[in-house]
Design goal:
The complex is a heterodimer of chains A (319) and B (281).
Chain A: H1 2-10, H2 12-18, H3 22-29, H4 33-62, E1 65-66, E2 74-75, H5 79-85, H6 88-120, H7 126-138, H8 141-151, H9 158-165, H10 182-207, H11 211-219, H12 224-253, H13 256-261, H14 273-282, H15 288-297, H16 299-316
Antiparallel strand pairs in A: 1-2
Helix pairs in contact in A: 4-15, 6-10, 6-12, 7-10, 10-12, 12-16, 14-15
Chain B: H1 2-38, H2 42-45, H3 60-68, H4 71-102, H5 108-120, H6 127-136, H7 143-168, H8 171-179, H9 184-195, H10 197-213, H11 216-221, H12 230-239, H13 245-276
Helix pairs in contact in B: 1-13, 3-13, 4-7, 4-10, 4-12, 5-7, 7-10, 8-9, 10-13, 12-13
The chains are: A mainly alpha (319), B mainly alpha (281).
Chain lengths: 319, 281
């Protein structure tokens, strides 16, 4: 019995060494972490290289070229950058982008925090309110921009309609074409759509704070304000940083709101870098190099945020 | 002391309720205006007879959208692009995330890092070279082109989200399965994936709604009706210089509905997934 077993076991081994079948080879490769790892990650690597790294590198090359779509570029050195920095429109765009992002993110942050604190209180039907207040986040940005363009409409929009009815104004207000109001109006829309993101993030943070901390503070006689500054704020700090940075990246580079509401006007008052970049590259003149240069000038600022967030997002995943 | 505390609490509760009412109005009024406009005849939409509450509600605008615009085609295109990019990114992300979470090979950490990094690079930095690339590959004006382009965002995000989840699946379960004769692939399919169902739901939600809501690539890469998605189709209605707000709001309501419904259904998981990463804000 024992002898027959050993012969049947030893036989297949030499034969498999001589001619390993395709199936067996695959079987073997699948037991190696290294082969399998690269195999599994190959499509993802292809995506990263082909759809992000390569386009990004070619954007850098383009900024040194005079290039139109479909035609090869001609090397012109720093000419695009020189022209941008001497253009008043570009300098205004930089200022606008900073104001638009800072005010937009700032207001979203404060509103989001208040919403989260309110929703964290116990009350009847709170889950229902919670769901409802988050809905603006789920609807496509294009749809909310279109809707708000109609709300701001000069002749028949909701705001002017109501203000006239209440006799608060005698002439309708041009929310989107008045140079002094346009930026403010655009930011209102950005805030309407973007606040729920902060609400959601902060609410999750609030719910992760152990109740015992507050109970202990209560026993020690800490006021509500003291509890807020000594427990809530420090505990939320990491989420504050992550949410703000993520939002700064996405707000500054979102193109839909401005493109649909004002298209950068009136007189470039709402021109931000993504829209200028679009206009230069694809709006008639087709100066792809100039367009790419506009966005890339902002990259050094964004990359600080991106690197920081990358670290933090990986740490969360225990990487 | 204790009494002071309760009055403080009561005051806060009152303040909270007040703020809540304001927030609900602020959120609801734009939705109200959008829906109500879509239900009005032109007479009630424009000019001196404009109303705040429709006197004679009508579905005429919805009929107009289907009768006089290629909205159905846009809808079909959006569904095709969203489903296509969701399925593709799901497959690529599951494999990639499993490799990063479970396998040991040189370059693993670097790859994880580059995935997150690429997820954070905004499309407004990439759309110009992507347009050149798509023109070169003759992928403009094509749904395939859009599906491929969206992978650039979906794959990094989904991989990142899944890899955290896969790590939380106990290794012992997988090892037990492998003792029972599973290899890596069958262990992934039979043990890790079933245990990661909530993460798969979140990933599906995010890639689907991202494709549905995406505007910039769709706007830049398509110039003809045949490959327009809902978002760019609507902007096209608007930019044709004639503002038919009734039909426009009707199509806006319909186009916003799918992601909103999905969000309400999957909310519990989505909120959890979002707080880990977030998509737009």
């Amino acid at each position: 019995m024992a002898i027959s077993t050993s012969t049947t076991v030893s036989l297949p081994i030499p034969s498999s060494r001589r001619e390993m079948g395709w199936g067996e080879r695959v079987q073997r490769a699948l037991t190696h972490d290294r082969t399998l790892g690269y195999l599994f990650l190959f499509p993802a690597i292809l995506v990263i290289v082909g759809l992000v790294a390569y386009p990004f590198a070619s954007a850098i090359v383009m900024t040194f070229q005079a290039k139109t779509a479909g035609a090869p570029g001609r090397y012109i050195g720093l000419e695009n950058y020189r022209e941008l920095f001497s253009s008043e429109q570009f300098l205004r765009t930089v200022m606008n982008t900073v104001v638009y992002t800072a005010v937009g993110v700032g207001v979203k942050f404060l509103l989001g925090l208040s919403m989260a604190l309110v929703l964290n209180q116990e009350r009847f039907c709170n889950n229902l309110f919670r769901s409802f207040l988050l809905v603006p986040w789920a609807i496509p940005t294009v749809m909310s921009a279109l809707n708000w363009r109609w709300i701001f409409d000069d002749a028949s929009g909701l705001i002017n309609n109501v203000l006239v009815r209440l006799n608060l104004i005698s002439e309708t207000i041009s929310w989107l074409s008045d140079p002094n109001l346009a930026m403010l109006s655009v930011i209102v829309v950005v805030v309407w759509q973007g606040t729920p993101f902060f609400t959601m993030s902060f609410l999750a943070g609030l719910q992760a704070i152990p109740k015992e901390l507050y109970e202990a503070a209560e026993i020690d006689g800490a006021s509500v304000l003291q509890q807020f500054t000594n427990i809530t704020l420090p505990r939320l700090h990491p989420i504050f940083v992550t949410a703000t940075m993520l939002s700064a990246i996405l707000t500054s580079s979102a193109i839909q709101f401005v493109l649909i509401l004002t298209n950068g006007g009136p007189a470039d008052k709402t021109m931000i870098f993504s829209v200028l970049s679009y206009h230069l590259a694809l709006g008639g003149a087709q100066r792809l190099g100039m367009g790419a240069a506009v966005s890339l000038i902002f990259f050094p600022v964004l990359v600080v945020f991106i690197v920081f967030l990358t670290r933090r997002m990986l740490r969360e995943k225990g990487e | 002391m204790a009494r002071k505390m309760t009055t403080q609490r009561r005051a806060l509760k009152g303040l909270g309720n007040g703020v809540l009412v304001v927030m609900i109005l602020w959120t609801a009024i734009p939705f109200y205006w959008m829906i109500v406009t879509s239900l009005k005849y032109d007479k009630e939409i424009y000019g001196y007879e404009a109303t705040l509450i429709p006197q004679r509600p009508t579905m005429a605008n919805y009929a107009t959208v289907f009768r006089e615009t290629p909205y159905l085609l846009y809808l079909r295109n959006s569904v095709a692009v969203a489903v296509g990019s969701t399925i593709l990114s799901m497959i690529i992300a599951v494999l990639g995330a499993y490799a990063i979470a479970r396998l040991n090979f040189p370059g693993r950490a670097l790859l994880a890092r580059s995935l997150v990094f690429t997820y954070l690079v905004p499309t407004s930095l990439l759309f110009i070279p992507m347009f050149a690339l798509m023109s070169m590959l003759r992928l403009t004006d094509s749904l395939h082109g859009l599906i491929i382009a969206y992978l650039g965002f979906d794959v990094p995000f989904c991989t990142w989200l899944l890899m955290g989840y896969f790590k939380s699946v106990p290794v012992e379960l997988e090892e037990a399965a492998r003792v029972d004769g599973c290899n890596r692939v069958t262990a992934l399919l039979r043990v890790v994936l079933p245990m990661s169902l909530p993460a798969l739901v979140v990933v599906t939600f995010f890639s689907f709604t991202h494709a549905w809501n995406e505007f910039l690539y769709a706007y830049v890469f398509t110039s003809t009706t045949s490959a327009r998605t809902v978002t760019t189709g609507l902007v096209n209605f608007m930019s044709q210089d004639v503002f038919f707000w009734g039909p426009l709001m009707a199509s806006t309501v319909m186009s916003a509905l799918p992601p909103v419904l999905m969000f309400l259904v999957f909310q519990r998981w989505v909120v959890k997934g979002l707080t880990l990463g977030g998509v737009k804000g």
